[in-house]
């Protein structure tokens, strides 16, 4: 893995493997992606897309809704089982997608590039993306410039404060991939409506929470509940959760 990761390989593996089950909860609670971010990924020449580390297919379905032929690739069958009919799925990884050479116009990683070995995955991307195509990464980040949401994020991280990545500095975005050109970045602000109960459960879908001990989870739940209770409500009782979607893309060179 990358040398600048602050997490050792064993912890990285444990966090990654925390997503082998719980696909139904992930699908129900994790946010989707704003339309503007999806539009920014596509060109008129985008026809075939590989969504790698697709999870439950949140991005895959949005891509398919744009009329492209999208395939979802993920190592976890439980996650892929949530995608539903109409979208092909492949059990695979960023390093071994199982796809043929030069077969896609776009390869996407939604919340998943930081799980990849950048050298092996970079070689795989250079193999499967056609010249002139793109690779793109997306991350949904809680907008912790909002005070109540910063309190919520702090409460959730008390299970294991150093176990997650802060992608705000973009250390984990695509960088100098062999065969790809200059990186372009964008951010999109939006809000996801959630019930208070859903927001409380959202913390429990994070890898650092799933890999924490039961006692750490129990100790953190009251803090999460208090942060949720302090969040402003809409007239219908829902909470609008502010997100920043960070996106990066690079073009496959001839």
Number of strands: 7
Low-confidence segments, given as residue ranges, are: 1-21, 163-173
Helix tally? Answer: 10
- Rg over CA atoms, rounded to whole Å, is 18 Å
Order of helices and strands: HHHEHEHEEHEHEHHHE
Strand content: 15-25%
Strands side by side in the biggest sheet: 3-2-1-4-5-7-6
Content-based structural category:
alpha/beta
Summed over residues and divided by their number, the pLDDT gives a mean of: 85
State the gist of this model.
The chain has 10 helices and 7 strands.
Describe this structure in words.
The protein has 254 residues and is of the alpha/beta class. The protein has helices at 9-17, 23-29, 35-41, 58-65, 77-80, 118-128, 147-157, 196-202, 207-210, 214-229, and strands at 48-52, 69-74, 89-91, 104-110, 129-142, 184-194, 239-251. Helix 7 (147-157) runs antiparallel to helix 10 (214-229) and helix 8 packs antiparallel against helix 10 (214-229). The model is unreliable at 1-21 and 163-173 (pLDDT under 50).
């Amino acid at each position: 893995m990358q040398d600048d990761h602050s997490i050792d390989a064993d912890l990285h593996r444990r966090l990654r493997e925390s997503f082998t089950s719980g696909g139904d909860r992930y699908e129900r609670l994790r946010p989707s992606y704003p339309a503007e971010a999806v539009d920014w990924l596509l060109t008129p020449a985008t026809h075939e897309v590989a969504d790698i580390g697709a999870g439950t297919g949140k991005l895959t379905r949005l891509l398919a809704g744009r009329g492209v032929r999208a395939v979802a690739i993920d190592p976890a069958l439980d996650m892929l089982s949530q995608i539903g009919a109409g979208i092909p799925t492949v059990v695979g990884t960023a390093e071994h997608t199982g796809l043929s050479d030069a077969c896609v116009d776009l390869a996407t990683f939604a919340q998943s590039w930081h799980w990849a070995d950048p050298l092996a995955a970079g070689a795989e991307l250079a193999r499967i993306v056609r010249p002139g195509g793109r690779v793109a990464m997306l991350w949904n980040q809680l907008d912790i410039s909002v005070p109540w949401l910063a309190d919520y994020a702090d409460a959730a991280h008390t299970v294991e404060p150093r176990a997650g990545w802060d992608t705000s500095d973009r250390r984990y975005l695509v960088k100098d991939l062999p065969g790809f050109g200059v990186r372009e970045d964008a951010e999109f602000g939006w809000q996801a409506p959630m019930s208070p109960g859903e927001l409380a459960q959202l913390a429990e879908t994070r890898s650092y929470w799933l890999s924490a001990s039961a006692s750490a989870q129990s100790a953190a739940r009251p803090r999460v509940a208090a942060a949720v209770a302090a969040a402003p409500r809409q007239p219908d009782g829902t909470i609008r959760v502010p997100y920043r979607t960070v996106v990066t893309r690079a073009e496959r060179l001839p």
